[in-house]
Amino acid sequence: MKFSVAITNPPYSNSLHLQIMEEVVKHCDKVVNVSPVRWLEDPLAKYKKNSDYSKFEESVSKKLEDMEILNNDISNELFNIEHSDLGIYVLGNGGFDYSKFSQMDSICQKIFNKCKNNKTLMDISTEEGYRGPHDGIFGVISSHRRNSSKLISDKYDLFITYRETFGNKLIFFKSEKERNNCFTYLTSKTMKYYSSKIRKNQRIPWQFIPCADFNKKCDDFSLIEFFGFTKDEYNAILTFEA
Predict the structure, then answer these.
(1) In whole numbers, what is the pLDDT of the chain averaged over residues?
(2) Cβ contacts of residue 154 below 8 Å, gap of 6+?
(3) Domain's final residue, options 47, 79, 102
(4) Burial class (CB in 10 A: 0-12, 13-18, 19+), 160
(5) Angle 231-238/220-227 helices, nearest 10 degrees?
(6) How far apart are CA 162 and CA 141, in angstroms?
(7) Radius of gyration over alpha carbons of the chain, in Å?
(8) Is a pLDDT exceeding 50 seen at residue 145?
(9) Whether residues 145 and 208 fall in one domain
(10) 111 and 200 in one domain?
């Protein structure tokens, strides 16, 4: 039996809502669905292994006819939930340009491009080990559990304190100067801006956070030359509110 229309609001658990859409659309001419859309909004999804963006492109994305986004503030107010953006999906014969949701702006593209020729935070934390020596000068980086644009805490004492908790990684430095510069880098408005755009779930994608030269100053003004920002891009970063 094939139905004309199905209206669904599936459970929001990992990719379960996508698996349900994938199956329901096989049996209906049209599907109207309300569920998270961060898998389509993630500008790095195409570069991640086994991402939902790739996995469900043929079975869900290419069947989209229309999509309206309810941003996080609106969806929380309407449904009294703490979640990311919700999408009102209309699936059927396809034709909708879903790629526009995941496009990077020029600032994010320049920062992302630095990952191609520079080591990333994931590279150096993996090289040095997840636990590493305890007698080095180190900094703690960890995932935040909410949709925050911060890469790490603004509190320096948390950055330099070893915490044996899930998700934390250590970066080792040769000097206190390097550690200070790295902390400045990760708490800069530049990195907060970038993080707010690339984080579409609770985890920080450290493999897409390029390392700077921590022997040099790494404040927002110093990063203009490193990333090649224009004056307008720099002003957009300075006016950004996390």
Answers:
(1) 87
(2) 187
(3) 102
(4) middle
(5) 140
(6) 10
(7) 20
(8) no
(9) yes
(10) yes
The answer on 111 and 39 residing in a single domain is: no
For 23-71, the pLDDT digits (tens) are 999 999 999 999 999 899 989 888 888 889 999 999 999 999 999 999 8
What is the C-alpha separation between 204 and 195, in angstroms, rounded? 8
- Helices assigned H by DSSP within the chain: 16-24, 38-41, 52-55, 72-79, 106-113, 121-127, 156-159, 176-186, 189-198, 220-227, 231-238
Residues 11 and 31 placed together within one structural domain of the fold? yes
State whether 228 and 190 are in the same domain.
yes
User: Hey, what are 160's tokens?
Assistant: 């330099």
Q: What is the span of the domain harbouring residue 55? A: 3-102
Residue of higher predicted confidence among 56 and 242: 56
Final residue before a domain boundary, out of 46, 80, 102: 102
As given in the structure block, the two tokens for residue 156 are 């320096």
In this structure, are residues 163 and 130 in contact, taking their beta carbons and an 8 Å threshold?
A: no
Say if residue 139 is in the same domain as residue 168. yes
pLDDT tops 70 at residue 129? no
> Angle, to 10 degrees, between the axis of helix 220-227 and the axis of helix 189-198?
60
Residue 225 has pLDDT above 80, yes or no: yes
pTM assigned to the model: 0.80
Q: How many independent structural domains does the chain possess?
A: 2
Contact 130, 164 (CB under 8 A): no
My answer on whether 233 and 178 are in the same domain is yes
pLDDT 10s digits, 66-109: 999 998 888 888 877 766 789 999 999 999 999 999 899 999 99
Tokens describing residue 129? 């080990």
